[in-house]
Amino acid sequence: MTVTAPQSLFEKIWAQRRVEDLNADGSLALMHIDRVMLHERMGGVALRSLAERQLPVRNRQQVFATIDHIADTRPGRTEDTTLMPGGVDFIRVTRDESRKSGIHFFDINDPRQGIVHVISPEQGIVLPGITLVCPDSHTCTQGAFGALAWGIGSSEAEHALATRTLRVRKPRSMRVTFTGRLAQGVGAKDLALALIARHGADGAQRCVVEFDGPVIRDMSIEARQTICNMAVEFSAFTALIAPDEKVFSTLQGRPFAPSGAQWDEAMASWRNLKSDEGASFDVELHMDVSDLAPMVTWGTSPQHACGVDGVVPGATQSAERALAYMDVHPGDKLADMPIQAAFIGSCTNGRLSDLQAAADVLRGRRVAPHIRAICVPGSTSVKREAEALGLDHVFKDAGFEWRESGCSMCFFSGGESFGVAERVISTTNRNFEGRQGPQTRTHLASPVTVAASALSGHIADPRPFLRGEP
Ligand SMILES: CC(C)[C@H](C(=O)O)[C@@H](O)C(=O)O
Ligand code: SF4
């Protein structure tokens, strides 16, 4: 009888998808790639380059492209409008090459269109135990379904499209176990920011991070996507969560998920997709979440985060530049900081439950005068579902712009942006210098905190609003 050592979820998927080791110690392997996703900012270029080399896309049924990054999100957009100078070429190349190569393509007016990481589960593209790659760093979002999904570069994308394989340096493993109970007004985004603030934006370098513990088990699938989304801001290779019944029922019946007997077969193998008792990890972290407050960033890294009821911490040498860029000072109260704009959307917090949470704060209230407030659903399907629930009216009545789906002002693509040096509170994942526009000062927060701040005209604690106080 062979006794196998306890394995982590990551080790199981790695072993199942490894074609061969490429060196003696197994630290470099050729991996089988099940599915590839593409977007117009990076994908069209990869497809065109392959076509020029006369290399066909292998297994085009497993390749999916969408238009999200530089798509116009203003109401009334057409197939070729974009605010990015020269952006229309990216869109057209992606459209033309997708059609020629015969991959699945979700164009701007397709009801399946949306941010690549949001539409993947909607369509049943991501599945437990598969390997999925996309030339986009936030592919880690999809680890919430128990897939090994990670961001790659454009030339790697070409390799994966042409061969269905990739050479991968084996990542280290980390497990983060969350215990305790999340307080009202505190959610997955706050958890992610608190984790990164505590352990640093480079805290998970080269690691596959498995999120685990009762807090994760109790979390909705959408909240799990939010926390996995932020893993790359923790410098992780990617994130993983063991799939459970919530994942299976979310994916069942989706267009590209297996059906019939194949579904039953898949389910039988998926049930084993969890870390064995006694599995070991290179790094183990534990965090009790009970005392967490809603989090807001004050600087230019996701690690520059503290409770919304806190103050900007004392300057360290590395933070000085961040303080200057953000025009904040040690001791400033975060909750008093005036803002000019509020943004709700992105692959971090642009799903239906995010919009619902924000709408619960906004309902029957108006954003402060002079605030530019924008809501961009993460996918066309999220937009339709939100509209069916009347959420578009809640946002519009509160003074928000209600947009078409796309990445929009999550990142500055050279076209539309907030005013120069404006202070923005945003549900996105990156607050780097210039991320949302020229000198834009971005404060990252959850949807409820962004909604409460838009109403207040300054950064605000969402908890009184959730208690129905103001
Ligand atoms: C444009 C794209 C390659 C980029 C990424 O890789 O993440 C973008 O999505 C981002 O969030 O910065
Ligand atoms: S929404 Fe933002 S973070 Fe997500 S893929 Fe688009 S640009 Fe990147």
Automatic annotation (TrEMBL):
Needs which cofactor?
Answer: [4Fe-4S] cluster
Q: Which UniProt keywords apply?
A: 4Fe-4S, Amino-acid biosynthesis, Branched-chain amino acid biosynthesis, Iron, Iron-sulfur, Leucine biosynthesis, Lyase, Metal-binding
Pathway membership of this protein?
A: Amino-acid biosynthesis; L-leucine biosynthesis; L-leucine from 3-methyl-2-oxobutanoate: step 2/4
Principal EC category? lyase
User: Which Pfam family is an annotated match for this chain, by its short name?
Assistant: Aconitase
Enumerate the catalysed reactions. (2R,3S)-3-isopropylmalate = (2S)-2-isopropylmalate
Q: Where is the Aconitase/3-isopropylmalate dehydratase large subunit alpha/beta/alpha domain?
A: 11-457
List, in alphabetical order, the Gene Ontology terms for molecular function in this entry: (R)-2-methylmalate dehydratase activity; 3-isopropylmalate dehydratase activity
Quote the EC number: 4.2.1.33
NCBIfam families xref list? PRK05478.1, PRK12466.1
Q: How does it assemble?
A: Heterodimer of LeuC and LeuD.
Q: Write out the function statement from the record.
A: Catalyzes the isomerization between 2-isopropylmalate and 3-isopropylmalate, via the formation of 2-isopropylmaleate.
Q: Know the name of this protein?
A: 3-isopropylmalate dehydratase
The source organism is Ottowia thiooxydans
